[in-house]
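---------- Forwarded message ----------

FYI, see the Large-conductance mechanosensitive channel record below. Original note from H. follows.
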Amino acid sequence: MSFFQGFKEFAIRGTVVDLGIGLIIGAAFGSIVTSFVSDVLMPPLGLLLGHVDFANLYINLSGGHYQTLAEAEAAGALTINYGSFIETIIHFVIIAFASYLVIIQMVKLRKASIESTKIKTCPFCFSDIPSRAKRCPKCTSSIENMKTSDEQTVVRIRASK
């Protein structure tokens, strides 16, 4: 197999495509959250805190006096932009919370699918096997008409030779 054939198989595999789609959606979601925080959330919060514009909150380290952050940056002043940092923290909290909600739903779905899979116990080696199995994958004993582990009753067991 050539390098390009191997790469093609890797790239077309479902998990890589899913990852790519997830990254694109994540980037778009990040843009939405940025707009939400900057354009919707921060203006009312600034109004409640006494007409504060978070984008202009900074500490000037050069000693000069400037009315806005843009003036300080135009003059080449060294600044600590803590207003932008506060907005970035709010972005992070919103994205982390949304990610948490998605992960919780995925865990619930995965748990539901796992619980829907019935499991029985092999009476020979006591390992857990799928309820539809006719043969134990651990000890290779033939198991027929055995009820699930919920009922814990064996109807008929035939040991393999």
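H. also flagged this: The longest helix spans residues 14-48.
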